[in-house]
Amino acid sequence: MENNQLTFRCRQCGACCRNLDFYKENVFPKIKEMFGYDDLKFPLKTIGGVCEHLKDNKCDIYADRPFFCNTNIVFEMINRKLGISIEHLLKLQEYSCALNRGEINR
Question: Does the pTM of the predicted model rise above 0.90?
Answer without folding.
Answer: no
